[in-house]
Specification:
Four Helix Bundle (Hemerythrin (Met), subunit A), two-stranded antiparallel sheet, 2 strands, about 220 residues, 8 helices, mainly alpha
């Protein structure tokens, strides 16, 4: 049959990004455990795609430190390395501080409402003990100042180092999500009032409350 000329094909970049996000989230939420081997054929079948976008996603995950590839052997989910988490946390914190410093006093009502909406979602997820939904809402909350800033370099840095931090964050939300909820509310108030130093100090503190011990996480046998 002839191919309709007026219909565009699937955007391959969107497909690659979607596959990357699905695999990234599966590692962050524990669907794939540290030490677990990831086979591109099995992953392609699971996601209903070809092996090419899966292989590309695994390369990106390797750059983020979520997987370890051994050429000619296997690709496995990495263990949570405390130093790597702290290094990534420091970079992520610095990027978010830059974003809120620019947003403080300049935020529109619509932008602040987006943060309030995300924080309401965060509160509801915590009430239901839905950590995955809480993490999604938290990411949406912190994404607002970054989006407002519109700095592609900062967004790229966060895309690279953010997943390592998010993976370690699950334990914090499970143990003390209420503290994060309160810090979100404080940040909205500081941004609204134009308190640049207060907003940047709170943002720095927020990210540096995340810490991990130096006991290596056991790999899956």
């Amino acid at each position: 049959m002839p191919i309709p000329q007026q219909v565009s094909g699937v955007d391959r970049s969107l497909l690659r990004d979607d596959v990357f996000r699905r695999l990234r989230d599966a590692i962050i939420d524990g669907t794939f455990l540290p030490g677990e081997q990831l086979k591109d054929g099995d992953l392609a079948e699971w996601l209903g795609v070809s092996r090419t976008p899966v292989r590309e996603a695994l390369l990106r995950l390797g750059a983020s430190g979520l997987v370890v590839a051994k050429p000619g052997r296997s690709t496995t989910v990495s263990t949570i390395d405390p130093k790597a988490v702290r290094d990534a946390r420091d970079v992520v914190a610095a990027m978010h501080v830059l974003a809120v410093r620019e947003m403080a006093g300049n935020a529109t009502d619509a932008e602040l409402d987006r943060m309030r909406h995300a924080n309401r979602r965060f509160a509801k997820a915590l009430a239901k003990d839905d950590i995955a939904a809480a993490m999604d809402a938290d990411e949406e909350f912190h994404r607002v100042p970054v989006t407002v800033l519109g700095n592609d370099a900062i967004a790229s840095v966060l895309d690279l180092f953010g997943p390592v931090v998010r993976r370690a964050e699950r334990e914090r939300f499970a143990a003390d999500g209420q503290a994060s909820l309160e810090r979100h509310e404080q940040l909205i108030a500081l941004l609204s009032s134009g308190d640049v130093e207060g907003a940047s100090d709170l943002t720095f503190e927020t990210w540096h409350t995340l810490d991990v011990d130096d006991h290596p996480e056991p790999e899956q046998s």
